[in-house]
Amino acid sequence: VKELQRSVSKVVEVDNIVCTVWKKLAPPKVEFFMWLALLGKLSTRQRLYEKGMLHEDQTSCPLCAEYPASLDHILLSCSFSQQIWLTISAEFGQNLIATATFKEHYRNWMSISGRKGQKSEVRAGPVGKWESS
Asked: What region holds the Reverse transcriptase zinc-binding domain (predicted)?
């Protein structure tokens, strides 16, 4: 049994950052959304195009209409999402660190250790803002 556990643990690698969404800091539907985002499984227009479900001319971002609607664009680099992140970071007195992917950005955000009692608020901040936007 131990040998089986070792071989499975070598094959199955759990990304701890993905598990952080299940902290009951947001409604279940928001946690589920964040979980899908961190796994790269959101059905964005770009992803639907890659699966052959949309034409290339249907992939533009619904928020800015300037770039293809990839997960990283919608949640990180779109001008709309950048404004949300700037608002959130200002509310909590945090500096944003430029990252290439949403997952890296989320990992950095979750590593912020605010004042005692503020950490859960800081962690829930992005989830709440995205839900209300």
From this structure: 13-85
